[in-house]
Specification:
single chain; mainly alpha; globular
Length: 338
């Protein structure tokens, strides 16, 4: 097992290099960039001041200085090798938009997405496992069919679309005004008592958290239900019942553990949730997390931040896959990696 883990860790190096190289090439193909963005702003400012020729707001020498400042005076392959060398020293460069190290920019948004991701993840597991088990035992009943319809409707509706509907109906959009429309705290948050701060935070988190949970909640519930149904139909269950075990004993002593294998291995997603962020949900509720940072960085051509997020999220995804394989060996002792 140790050899397998070491081999997987070593394979991550060329994989990350390949991912970063492909993303770097694609970024180079996108029209525009930080230099063009600054030139465009200078031209817009000159036009607003009533300049005679806004297109000459910056001289060629000034544009060349800007290119040198951002490193765009070098060929693309040199810039990529320099970026890769800096990453080896945990330096992801400087954000063009925020003027701060990329790692600091990402770290400032990281807690928000981490909180939403982990909270929705654990709530989903705590509810979906017993709910899926109950639905499997009651398979075909009216309550099972009714709950399946409700859960499936949540699965097919995108989180951002649900967020828009919740704002319209519950956050003062057109009907009720029970929740705030966005943000994480109120303007007077610092003046509230400790209990008031907790209530205010929960009040702001209710709607976006529901949107975060809904799709994962539906998927895990159906996954758990189908896994249990599959195990209940296997020969070892019929054998256990024939030997005198009650259905409840056979279910919890034999079927449940095997049914948890596909569900437990999804725990590996805890790594990707650290950097995931939900772009459109964060945009709808004005939550300053990783998803919104990635979106704004793409719009503003802040390529250092984009590459930093892609690299770190890819690293977390690869570690999650390795964690998933390790979980297999604990949940199912028959599996061995060499």
């Amino acid at each position: 097992m140790k050899t397998y883990i070491l081999r997987r860790l070593l394979l991550m190096i060329p994989t990350l290099v390949g991912i970063s190289l492909v993303c770097f090439i694609l970024i180079q193909l996108i029209p525009g960039g930080p230099v063009e963005e600054l030139v465009s702003r200078a031209q817009s400012a000159a036009a607003m001041r009533g300049g005679a020729d806004a297109s000459k707001a910056l001289s060629p020498e000034q544009i060349a200085q800007i290119q040198a400042y951002f490193g765009f005076d070098k060929p693309a392959w040199q810039r990529y090798l320099q970026w890769l060398w800096n990453v080896l020293h945990l330096d992801f460069g400087t954000s063009y938009t925020y003027g701060a190290p990329v790692f600091e920019v990402i770290a400032s948004r990281f807690p928000v997405s981490l909180f939403f991701g982990l909270t929705s993840f654990f709530i989903s597991y705590l509810v979906c496992i017993p709910l899926g088990l109950w639905k499997a035992v009651r398979h075909g009943s009216r309550l099972d069919s009714l709950s399946s319809g409700i859960i499936f409707s949540g699965y097919v509706m995108p989180g951002y679309a649900l967020g828009i509907l919740l704002i319209i109906f519950l956050a003062g959009g057109s009907y009720l005004d029970l929740f705030p429309m966005g943000g994480l705290t109120s303007d007077e948050f610092e003046d509230l008592s400790f209990t008031g701060k907790i209530f205010d935070l929960l009040h702001h988190l209710a709607l976006p958290m529901f949107c975060y949970i809904i799709s994962e909640f539906a998927f895990l519930t159906f996954l758990m239900k189908n896994s249990v149904l599959e195990e209940l139909g296997k020969d070892y269950m019929r054998t256990a019942l024939a030997k005198g075990l009650s259905f409840k004993e056979a279910l919890f002593r034999h079927a449940l553990r095997n049914a948890l294998i596909p569900v437990a291995t999804r725990l590996s997603e805890i790594f990707t949730l650290m950097f995931a962020g939900a772009l459109l949900i964060e945009k709808v509720f004005d939550i300053d997390g990783m998803g919104l940072l990635y979106y704004n960085s793409m719009v503003n051509r802040d390529y250092n931040v984009v590459l930093g997020i892609i690299f770190l999220s890819s690293l977390m995804a690869l570690l999650g896959r390795l964690f998933s394989d390790i979980l297999y060996t604990f949940v199912d002792p028959r599996i061995r990696f060499r």
